[in-house]
């Protein structure tokens, strides 16, 4: 963990930090470490949950787990689906996948869909050339038909957000709703900086439920910008890359300066 960070830069650590914010915690699905007891309690309460590696990236190793009204259990990971008669059988099988890796369990949000495929939203917020937080991109990610995650590198389809929202909002309502999402992303960035001061970019993954309430699925502190290449407006990716390079140089200079300051003075 970075000595300047107040919490570990893990999924669970960032979730716990966001839960300290009285407003932002309202947008967070219940999340806990995926112990045997916690997973059982979450399934009884929410019927559908996601189980994720605490340090995972790119949608790898994520389970969608469900508890049916008939008292049976099932999960899907990648394209593999399995059913179980008992919870002990379910957890024993999942534990073999876990190994020594810590996982978290998160209340499942039933995502909005586009042509039957679930989608979520990625909001990119970066430090600009003045050192201020700036919203630099927002995009939809539509899941592959056979998968449970929307990640681009797991077969998800990058899609203009306006095309996805027009199925649920009137055309004239879309700009205001997108602005609302961008404000949420900006507020998250400003707050995250108080706990993770070296972070210069965040990618906020947002789920929308049937009431169009946004839910914070995850805050990525090293977000992959490649998905924004797929937008028709190429200036968005160019700006993201410009800020990324500038922030990399700034952090490198700061590291050198701190190193020089920490060196003891040599007597001549």
Q: Which series of helices and strands comes N to C?
A: HEHEEEEHEEEEEHHEEH
CATH topology-level fold name of the largest domain: D-amino Acid Aminotransferase, Chain A, domain 1
Number of strands: 12
Question: If strands are numbered along the chain, what order do they take across the biggest sheet?
Answer: 1-6-2-3-4-5
List the quaternary state of the chains.
single chain
Give the overall shape, derived from the CA principal axes.
globular
Q: Name the CATH superfamily assignment of the largest domain.
A: ATP-grasp fold, B domain
Quote the beta fraction.
25-35%
Fraction in helix = 25-40%
CATH class group of the largest domain: Alpha Beta
Detail the poorly predicted runs. Answer: none
Task: Identify the notable features of this structure and list them briefly.
single chain, alpha+beta, Dna Ligase, domain 1, 2 domains, six-stranded antiparallel sheet, 12 strands, about 30% helix
How would you portray this structure in words?
The chain is globular and about 60 Å long. It folds into 2 domains: 21-108, Dna Ligase, domain 1; 109-251, D-amino Acid Aminotransferase, Chain A, domain 1 (2-Layer Sandwich). The model has no long low-confidence stretch (mean pLDDT 92). The two termini are 38 Å apart. It has 6 helices and 12 strands. By secondary structure, it is an alpha+beta fold. The strands form 2 sheets. The chain has a 6-stranded antiparallel sheet, with helices on both faces. Strands 7, 8, 9, 10, 11 and 12 form a 6-stranded antiparallel sheet that branches. Helix content is 32%, strand content 26%.
């Amino acid at each position: 963990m970075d000595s300047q960070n107040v919490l570990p830069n893990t999924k669970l650590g960032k979730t716990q930090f966001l839960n300290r914010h009285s407003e932002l915690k309202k947008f967070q699905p219940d999340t806990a470490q995926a112990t045997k007891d916690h997973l059982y309690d979450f399934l009884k309460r929410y019927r559908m949950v996601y189980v994720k590696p605490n340090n995972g990236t790119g949608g790898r190793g994520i389970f969608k787990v469900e508890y049916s009204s008939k008292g049976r259990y099932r999960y899907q990971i990648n394209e593999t689906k399995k059913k179980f008669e008992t919870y002990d059988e379910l957890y024993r099988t999942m534990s073999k996948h876990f190994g020594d890796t810590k996982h978290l369990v998160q209340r499942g949000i039933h995502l909005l869909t586009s042509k039957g495929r679930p989608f979520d939203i990625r909001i990119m917020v970066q430090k600009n050339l003045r050192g201020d937080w700036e919203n630099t991109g927002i995009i939809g990610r539509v899941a592959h038909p056979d998968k449970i995650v929307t990640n681009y590198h797991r077969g998800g389809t990058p899609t203009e957000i306006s095309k996805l929202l027009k199925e649920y909002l009137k055309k004239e309502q879309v700009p205001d709703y997108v602005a609302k999402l961008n404000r949420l992303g900006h507020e998250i960035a400003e707050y995250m900086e108080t706990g993770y001061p070296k972070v210069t970019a965040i990618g906020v993954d947002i789920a929308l439920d049937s009431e169009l309430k946004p839910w914070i699925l995850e805050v990525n502190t090293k977000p992959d910008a490649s998905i924004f290449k797929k937008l028709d407006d190429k200036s968005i990716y160019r700006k993201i890359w410009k800020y990324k390079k500038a922030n990399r140089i700034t952090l490198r200079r700061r590291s050198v300066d701190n190193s020089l300051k920490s060196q003891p003075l040599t007597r001549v």
